Amino acid sequence: MLDSLILLCLGFCLLFFLFRTKRPKNFPPGPRPVPIFGNILQLNLENPINDLKKLSERYGQVYSIYIGSRPAVVLNGLQAMKEALVTQAVEFAGRPQGLMVNHVTEGKGVVLLNHGPIWRDHRRFALMTLRNFGLGKQSMEERILAEVSHLTSHFEKSAGKSTDPQTLFHKTASNIICTVLFGTRYEHEDETLQLIIRMITENAKIVNGPWGMIYDTLPLLRGLPLPFQKNFKNFETLKKFAGDHVAQHEKSWVPGEPRDFVDCYLDEVEKRGDDDSSFNKSQLIFYLLDLQFAATDTTSNTLLTAFLYLMTHPDVQERCQKEIDEVLGEKAQASFEDRPRMPYTQAMIHEVQRVANTVPLSVFHTTTKDTQLMGYDIPKDTLIIPNLSSVLNEESQWKFPHDFNPSNFLNDEGEFVKPEAFMPFSVGPRMCMGEGLARMELFLILVTLLRRFQFIWPEDGGVPDYTPVFGITLTPKPYKLGVRLRGNQ
């Protein structure tokens, strides 16, 4: 009797799942899901990018997969990406709810806020405040170059040897955003800085890694002491870090005289003076962590990719250095305004961003209403996965889609051009807020270091491995960086 009851329950669960996962009418095609797991067993959870590419080759630029019982539509290629995120920007501007990232951030911040007035207000505030604190101006250049001087000192001490850059650029990027958010920088040896970087990088790997996928797919396991719980524990420490900074600012804050982003936010809270306002201390803490994470992990991993390829492509490095020397001449330091006179160096930096593919699946979207895409019907609240990798490597869009070659960004006259398919920051209204800061950081850091140093693959470095470690961001595998002072210094 008991056996029959168990079989009946299992059969009922199976039928319920099959009913729940039946594709809506005219929904994008895709592989058949299996009960409970959906399609995750058909993906390499360590890095699903190649599997997503194979599915696109079979089902087209727009196809569907199931994460557990939840349907998701994967966008591949420039045409699908533009039609969804640009042409139908509002319809595809939502953010998914109920995933690990939502639970960790408690539905606050700005990156994961769903489309609506609260998101619009906070995004507008961030863009305005970053601009007022020097984004695109000389004051931001000075902040970046001041931090680069610490990098230069580190490499001078390492000249003639090799060094481990694994967290070096994370410290630089984190300090730059800390000066904007909190008016504070940390020494590279500071335990707080090292702890924050470790937790940011760990969480980036957990959220989009196997355990993050298991959390999102199998809700019944969420309360168990499995490795994904580390994400929540880390975030509590990060919340305390940001909360302590806010508390210190509240003690010394002078209304109308902002020193940094936190002061500007406190001014905004006072100006609104409404208990129901979305501008509040709790929101501020998650807002700060959004910006800290976005500005630290993406830029640093792009820099790690840059030096991996510059070491293993010495001809590219040498050509950049020649151009930098010619343009800067006797100037004491580089300026962001030097970019137009450095077409090859600009091309190299953009090519690094293309091959780095730092945020391969962007940040997931959802549809805000029932809509259509490339002939398919997409219901409201459908999970949307923009596969940016598919655009950055699309064969019809690049001269050398599978090679590291700055010529992808140069025309026949050697002038810098930026193809439409270049979208490492995504596109549309939800593209990365920190694009302007990242572009300035990459240019000033790379030009300053290439002017002073030569970077060489160490003799004991083994065979270069370009295979990245997957997560929210792609990270190059650890390597050693050989450093030499240049002969003209």
TrEMBL record:
SUPFAM superfamilies with a match to the protein in the record: Cytochrome P450 (SSF48264)
Annotated GO biological process: organic acid metabolic process; xenobiotic metabolic process
Pfam families, A to Z: p450
Signal peptide span: 1-24
PROSITE patterns for the chain: CYTOCHROME_P450
Family annotation (InterPro entries): Cyt_P450 (IPR001128), Cyt_P450_CS (IPR017972), Cyt_P450_E_grp-I (IPR002401), Cyt_P450_sf (IPR036396), Cytochrome_P450_fam2 (IPR050182)
Coarse class of the protein's main subcellular location: membrane
Record's GO cellular component terms: cytoplasm; membrane
Membrane spanning stretches: none
Subcellular location: Membrane
Keyword Signal: yes
Keywords: Heme, Iron, Membrane, Metal-binding, Monooxygenase, Oxidoreductase, Signal
Cofactor(s) it depends on: heme
GO MF: heme binding; iron ion binding; oxidoreductase activity, acting on paired donors, with incorporation or reduction of molecular oxygen, reduced flavin or flavoprotein as one donor, and incorporation of one atom of oxygen
PANTHER family: CYTOCHROME P450 2F2-RELATED, CYTOCHROME P450 508A4-RELATED
UniProt record similarity statement: Belongs to the cytochrome P450 family.
This protein's name: Cytochrome P450
Native source organism of the sequence: Aldrovandia affinis
Source taxonomy: Eukaryota, Metazoa, Chordata, Craniata, Vertebrata
